Amino acid sequence: xxxxxxxxxxxxxxxxxxxxxxxxxxxxxxxxxxxxxxxxxxxxxxxxxxxxxxxxxxxxxxxxxxxxxxxxxxxxxxxxxxxxxxxxxxxxxxxxxxxxxxxxxxxxxxxxxxxxxxxxxxxxxxxxxxxxxxxxxxxxxxxxxxxxxxxxxxxxxxxxxxxxxxxxxxxxxxxxxxxxxxxxxxxxxxxxxxxxxxxxxxxxxxxxxxxxxxxxxxxxxxxxxxxxxxxxxxxxxxxxxxxxxxxxxxxxxxxxxxxxxxxxxxxxxxxxxxxxxxxxxxxxxxxxxxxxxxxxxxxxxxxxxxxxxxxxxxxxxxxxxxxxxxxxxxxxxxxxxxxxxxxxxxxxxxxxxxxxxx
Length: 358
Fold this sequence. Notes:
With 358 residues, the chain is of the alpha+beta class. It has helices at 6-16, 28-38, 43-56, 60-65, 68-75, 82-97, 106-110, 117-128, 137-146, 156-169, 175-188, 208-212, 269-278, 326-331, 340-343, 353-356, and strands at 228-239, 242-247, 258-259, 262-264, 283-288, 292-295, 299-310, 322-325.
């Protein structure tokens, strides 16, 4: 049955696919950047990040040489910062092993840091027309509905089986369009949330789930493990027009990013004042801010915030804190969107907010 989907799917895609900045030139580097960005982020949200990133780092050499703080600042708001760190590791590999050009070889692409079978398949097929599949969540959803397969799509065995099936029907000379067509179908027709738009689907006559009315029950995903909840107290410490930030450890969650000082548990105003005095700071005023929360993949932060004005000191005993003005924080220091609710008190925009306010 899958052999029959190739021609109608390609015809549908070529007639009216979305115009995206990384599609038109079929440049391997741009495809790579876009696919890594799209792993946890919607297409519309990715566009301004992609533009800024590729303008600042237009090729693999620039990515390989970029300083850590600039790299994290360019990625600020996309989250999952190990993705961009792995990209830089891979860029250095490419410079050393492949003369600065992503190899036109599926297995060699998979040997690069942070590149798995999906990303390797996307680069190989779209940039180089190598007939290999690129199976992501969109593709797994489409195929599970087409074939009415109730296997858990989070299992590697399911993904491997789909990859083998698609490899057999990969059209010579059109591998890139075929893979993009499957992704596109899953993104705009066979959608992840809500009912699929079956009446608009070019493959509706082949779809077993539609024929049997089971499309809303597919694909099957094993229930994810519940996130751990952490309570934290966040401090917006103000010294005149400057605010305090600190750098996170080089390993772990949000490694190497800058943040507002924050502490485990919910602290009272009295506990905050005592803590700051212990740092050698002189609090003048404290104000309770709104509560906020931020969800990571495996943990949820539930935050209580305070704004604290302190007296200016000629010498600070706490080396951990750096006092910066808002413009410097906006331009230079990479800060995670987890603190966006508190950054707004200083007119500091983080992550996607920077683009939404333009």
